[in-house]
Amino acid sequence: MKIEITIPSSLSEIPLCRYQAFIKMRNSSTDEELIAYKMISLLCDVPLATVSKMSLISVNDLILHLGKIFEEKPKFRTTFKMNGKEFGFIPDLEAIQLDEYITLEKHLTDWENYNKAMAVMYRPILSKHKSKYEIAPFDSMPEMDEVMKYVPLDIAMSSSVFFWTLEMELLEGTLRYLETEIMKDKTLKTNIAQGLNLANGGGGIPAFMHSLRENLQSLTTSYPCNYLNVSTI
Fold first, then answer.
1. Under DSSP, is residue 126 helix (H, G, I), strand (E, B) or coil?
2. How confident is the model at residue 197 (pLDDT cuts 50, 70, 90)?
3. Strand, coil or helix: 85
4. Digit-coded pLDDT (tens) for 63-101
5. What is the pTM of this model?
6. pLDDT surpasses 80 at 190
7. Torsion angle of C-alpha atoms 107, 111, 113, 117, degrees rounded to 10
8. Could you give the CA distance from residue 25 to residue 18 in angstroms, rounded to a whole number?
């Protein structure tokens, strides 16, 4: 039986919503064979009944092909176009609003709802001059949650890596500062201890530094490349 399906050749050809559907299914099932079939169905946008008619060789070839696609390391982009409309990344992260920050913090590591994080990060560009641009206010377009379900997966994944890198750099910088400055400056050491509500005037700082190192190690070992983690049948 001859079966024709459209196979994505890169992450840019897979909308976020298909990957979200896969993650939701992956998190709720332990049947590896069924997961493999459903993965092909979801990521290639083909009925499960059609996948079940495919040869085992073709299924395994597709699993390997999709696995290679998810090894891509897409480049972060500040702007992109979708359906004829241009979207831009938040121009100034330091000026982020509280409601934007809360939404972003809540969904940045939640792939099943990652479209809500994307709706904070990227918004329609209202005006543009060379590399400068103005984006729509966060609360002016509630429909953006739905729109961002269809963002190309390379854009979504690169934004996740961007924030992971940003957090890594912040933690590394903080740790370096503490290690080089605190222990040689008694006044600074006392001020930081008081700011952290440490009871013994600095005795708890080593514990705080240890906590920072643990957080840094946790980030280092949790690089946000989301592999399919599906084996051949």
1. strand
2. low
3. strand
4. 999 999 998 889 999 999 999 999 999 999 888 898 998
5. 0.79
6. no
7. 40
8. 11
Count of residues for the chain?
A: 233
Task: Give the Cα separation of 81 and 95 in Å (integer).
Answer: 24
- All residues at 6 or more sequence positions from 116 whose CB lies less than 8 Å from its CB, including other chains: 103, 106, 107, 145, 148
The dihedral over CA atoms of 158, 109, 93, 86, expressed in degrees to the nearest 10, equals 50
DSSP symbols for 3-42: ---PPPSSGGGSBHHHHHHHHHHHHT---HHHHHHHHHHH
Distance CA 203, CA 151 (A): 49
Q: Which residues of 190-213 are buried (b: 16+ CB within 10 A; e: fewer)?
A: eebbeeeebeeebeebeebbeebe
- DSSP letters for the chain: -----PPPSSGGGSBHHHHHHHHHHHHT---HHHHHHHHHHHHTT--HHHHTTS-HHHHHHHHHHHHHHTT--PPP-SEEEETTEEEEE-S-GGG--HHHHHHHHHHTT-GGGHHHHHHHHEEEEEEEETTEEEE--GGG-TTHHHHGGGSBHHHHHHHHHHHHHHHHHHHHHHHHHHHHHGGG-HHHHHHHHHHTT-TTSSTTHHHHHHHHHHHHHHHHTT-----------
Angle between helices 16-27 and 32-43 (to 10 degrees): 170
Q: What is the spatial order of strands in the sheet that 85-89 belongs to?
A: 79-82, 85-89, 122-129, 132-135
